[in-house]
Structures are given as structure tokens and as C-alpha cells.
Fold this protein.
Amino acid sequence: MSERVVLAYSGGLDTSVAIPYLAEQTGGEVIAVAVDVGQGGEDLDTIRKRALACGAAEAVVVDAKEEFAADFCVPAMQANALYMDRYPLVSALSRPLIVKHLVSAAKEFGGTTVSHGCTGKGNDQVRFEAGLSALNPDLKVIAPARDFAWTRDKAIAFAEEKGLPIDVSAKSPYSIDQNLWGRAVETGFLEDIWNGPIEDVYDYTADPAEPREADEVVITFASGVPVALDGRQLTPYQVVAELNRRAGAQGVGRIDMVEDRLVGIKSREVYEAPAAIALMAAHMELENVTVERDLARFKRSVDQRWGELVYDGLWFSPLKESLDAFIADAQKHVSGDVRLTLHGGRAVVTGRRSAASLYSYDLATYDTGDTFDQSLAKGFVELWSLPSKIAAKRERDLEG
């Protein structure tokens, strides 16, 4: 049997042209793998037929929206994962899922090589290849845009030469990657970091400055997993999809930032992540209510490291796996309801309740019924302050 190359296939110009190009370069057959992670656009059957029309020996299409929501988006929310305290890992989350299905296809069809469309300047090349190394280190990798300086102009010329059934005329001024968890936009006039984004950059969110009625939503969590909206039981995918619509209609989730890429450069990125931002706002507040103080403090450092590992393409690393276990254990009491007001580009918590709450009204109140014994406070403060008091006395004695 000839060599088989498993291609991460999107259905667009670059990966469609890659099918005959890779066949020529390797002398082998190409297996196209398209994974639906909620990016929208064409249906899977159309994408599959195009891959075959472009010369693929086999075309695998996977509806992974539910899997992506439950196994990737929910863990990111439980980790309150915001790279550089702002970016909710939109693209970084989808790459290990795609890698998982590429490796599965390679096993099924006898593939020896995997190909992706990443350039040498981006993070995604690392995410794909680090994931492949973890799941099947024997697979070789070809990245035409990086390894063969494959440009869009070359792709268009090759498509016309081969008479491929794809539209080569439309060209967005931006580079866009989107999925269920959000949308990433870069390049074009955005590369001048003084230029403000204009409204045509956005698609998932409405202009937050436009006047409209606020939207109130109650999100129900069970052990850190969102399970209902306004009392309606939903899957994680359904929760994210509905919050993308409702929070997006209120302009929630717009992010404009200069980001530290893994490859060592800074890049200006514009993101939209309405559901991700709304869910994390609710989840963080429910953790405030249900997670003990020292555990919550330590978890914040774990959350940051978890987000950095995922951003850096180390989803399948031993450290990430161990942090997953810690985060999962920390979620066992994160159950209850959080009420959010969505309006003017913000998701604001206005109410919270939980059967596992550590908040005690009787201890917190300053009114009649207060059960907090203030007589204990004086001795506590004296003991708490004692190390600082002793150190201060030492400094005075040494100076004197």
C-alpha cells in the first residue's frame, strides 16, 4: 500500500489545494479529516464531497460539537482559563480535539504522515505537533505553508491549473478562526495596534453601545458543569450555543489585546467569546460561594498554569493531566444557581444560591441575629500580627 497522508481539512482554498499538492509531493494518498467544532459555515456532507472531488482517497467528517463542549470547553471554564487574564483559549482548545481525530484516522486508514495548514509564525503548529507527539510519536508531519513556503498566490495558481472545484475569488481582509467557544480575528489593518477595530470585524457579538433591553439569565451548575438555563435542562453544547446567542446579542465577550505568542512575538488579536465570558463570570462567582478560602487561593495559581499549558499546546502533557485531577476534585461542591444580567457588553452577577454554600447569613449580618463572636477577634488579631510585630522590633533594635 502506498503512503497515506492524513490532512486536517477545513474545506477552504488552502486545505483543498493541499490534497493534490500533498499527493504530488509524497506520491501517496491523502485522507482528509474535517472536524466540526461549531465553526459554522458549510455542512459536513458538502465538505466531504469537496475533499473527494479534490482528489482525496478518503474523507472523514466528524460532528464533534457536543464532544468539544463537554470535554474541552467545560474543563476550560472550570479552570477559569483566561490566558494573560483575558483570552479564553478559543483556538487553543479546538486543536487537541482535532489532533485526537487525526490520530484516530491515521490508525484506521494506515496513515504514516499528518499534514496541517499552519504557518511558522503561529501557535497552532506547536499545538498540532505537540499533540501528535503525545498521542502517536511515530507519525511524520508536513506543514506546506511552513515547510514549502506555500502562499495563497501559489495555492490559487495551483487550483486554477488543476481545475479544482473551489472558489478562489473571495478573500477576507482578516485571518479568522472560529468555533463554539469563540472567534479570533487578526491581520489586515488590525496589525497596526493603534487602529481601533471596526464593526465589520465582529460576527458573534452586536455593538454593545446600541440601546436595548437587558437580558437576565439563571445558569445552573452541578459539580462545576453547566446543566441548565432558566430552569431548562440542557447539554453543555446547548448551554454554550444559547449563551453565545443571548450574550452575543448584548455585545458581551469582545476582547482586543496584544498577546504574547508561544513563538516569541507579540501579536494583536481581536476575540469574541460571549458564552465563554458569561459562563466564567458565573462559574467564578459560584466558586466564591462554595470553595473554601485556601483551596480557592491555591486553585487560582493552578488555573493560571492550566491556561498557559493549553495555550502552549500541552493539552496531553503529564502536568496538565495532574492539574485536571486537582481541578475536578475542587469542583465537587460547585453546584447551584447564578443569576446574570447581560447588557452593554457586560455579564454582571446579580444573585447566587447553593445548597453547598459556605456563606452564612447569621455570621455575615451586622443586624440582630448576628452569631459572630466578636470577642474572639482581639486575640486573633494580636496573634496574626505577632510575626510582623517581632520583626519590626528587631529592626528598631538593630538600628538603635
Remarks:
- The chain has a mean pLDDT of 94.
- Residues 265 and 350 are 40 Å apart (CA to CA).
- The chain has 13 helices and 14 strands.
- The longest strand covers residues 29-36.
